[in-house]
Request: fold
Amino acid sequence: MTWFDYMLNTAAPHSRYSAKQWFRYLRKDIEKNISPEQIEDLCNNPALSAFQKVSLKAAFTEGSPTRNHILGLNGKVEPKKLMILMEKYGS
Reply:
């Protein structure tokens, strides 16, 4: 199964109503060398929702806030930031 088929037939339908799930699928492939043509072809497919199309383009755009957010998922949390959250919301 190619990347295009996987995203179209597996990722898109399974995450249609969940941005969190969609970002998980994108995170798996964001570091791969996906060509701009493949991304454009996928964005032109009617099987993807409008949100999926926009976030797909942003995820593969270097330096975009969406890309940084997706790459930051499951990243290490600095202890200082964790302590601030614990103090703010309780332990």
Q: What stands out?
A: DSSP finds six helices and no strands in the chain.
